[in-house]
Amino acid sequence: MTVDEKIFDKGLANTIAAESSMSYIDGANGILEYVGIDIDSLARNSTFEESTYLLWNGTLPNQSQLNGLVDDLREEYALPGGVIDLIRTFPTDAAPMHALQTAVASLALHDPEADVNEPGPNVRKSIKLVAKTPAIVAAFDRHRKGLDIIEPDSSLDIASNFLWMLNGEKPTETMGKALDVCLILHADHGTNASTFTSLVVISTLSDMYSSMAAAIGALRGPLHGGANEGVMRMLEEIGSLDKVDAAIEQKLANKDKIMGFGHRVYKAVDPRATYLKTFTKGIAEDTGNQSLYEMSSRIEDIMNEKVGSRGIYPNVDFYSATTYHCLGLDLDLFTPLFAIARMVGWTGHCMEQLADNKLIRPGSAYIGPHGVDYTPISDR
Ligand code: ACO
Fold first, then answer.
1. CA of 221 relative to ligand 1 center, distance in Å
2. For the domain 227-326, what is the CATH superfamily, name and number?
3. Which CATH superfamily is domain 22-222+339-355 in?
4. DSSP 3-state of 34
């Protein structure tokens, strides 16, 4: 096929770039399934660990299979001493996503199997990455606040252990479960920008750690995972319910994007946002943050009225911002938390890619000049 015969698809919006058995998205009807199971059903009934097994293995585990994965993950909660030492050298005003990206890349230095691109070692690396990412985020947060770094507690699940390492207090069951649900909802989402980034890297037969570090870089942008921080900033900037209408109308008149709305694939409501809306209402009431929920709900009403007909609805980031705030997380930990969950999707898609690999290398349409004479520098 010549360059002329290829199709230029800006933003790859109409390009199928991979085959996957992990998550299915029906953007027109607002449906998301993990291996055929509706996301709402998983949020209500599953755990992050069980959903991880499902996404990686294509089936729900029986009890002994689940216990096996849970044990393997818990054995890998702790960070290598060298990674903790490295985190202690990070500037305390660094962005947590930069700290996370650097520390995830550094895990390769402490894994003798880092460059062994075979199924067994890649499963082990995936387990390490999912188990250790929460420890990295928590360790950096403690370091920047001048607090002791807390050892993981392997009697806890990933969500509760993260809150323990972050706060030095065992979370209540309700808080642990709230975070667990958020992790399930964010675990995978087709070939989104960060997952595609990880696939491009692994398709060169690079390694899992490099792929994950690249994916973290893609996730942090405000058009992708960074939007949850943008939502919280917007809510803080607006300040109160009575100022919502004027603020949103002004932003729309200025043609500003409203963070947490719109999606490349969903032209109906993102089903994760539907679930989170109800969930957020409860947690906001329990933690005395009703005003944030009320502001968010009002923003959604205005957006529905003004741009709903154009398929611009709340996405997963919109209500997750208030949920994370209610969980006591600092604003700049929202996107790292997304990365903790999405590590499951990134690693899973990379393992799928390696099972039937082809280098990902699209073309580009050259639009510059041809046949230009070289001008000596003295004549320019
Ligand atoms: N607020 C206001 N207008 C919007 C929004 C929004 N949030 N999103 C899209 N639009 C408008 C655009 O201004 C554009 O209008 P125009 O045709 O008059 O120029 C039109 O809708 C199409 O927007 P694009 O950005 O071209 O659509 P695309 O499919 O490329 O974008 C995206 C999807 C990037 C998510 C976009 O909706 C956006 O920027 N949203 C805000 C950021 C956000 O919430 N990102 C998180 C996405 S979910 C995730 O990554 C987990």
1. 13
2. Cytochrome P450-Terp, domain 2 (1.10.230.10)
3. Citrate Synthase, domain 1 (1.10.580.10)
4. strand
- Cβ of 259 closer than 6 Å to ligand 1, yes or no, is yes
25 membership: H or E segment, kind and range: strand 23-26
- The ranges assigned to domains in the chain are 22-222+339-355, 227-326
For residue range 282-309, what is the model confidence (pLDDT) as tens digits?
A: 999 999 999 999 999 999 999 999 999 9
Which ranges of 269-358 does DSSP label H, i.e. alpha helix? 271-286, 290-307, 316-326, 334-355
Give the Å distance between the CA of 311 and the centre of ligand 1: 10
Helix/strand/coil for 105: helix
Instruction: Among 9, 223, 228, 334, name the best residue to mutate to test ligand 1's pocket (greatest count of ligand atoms within 8 A of Cβ).
Output: 223
- Going from the Cα of 309 to the center of ligand 1, the distance in angstroms, rounded, reads 14
Is 0.85 topped by the overall pTM?
yes
Q: Looking at the annotation, which residues are catalytic?
A: 263, 317
**214-238: pLDDT as tens digits:** 999 999 998 999 899 999 999 999 9
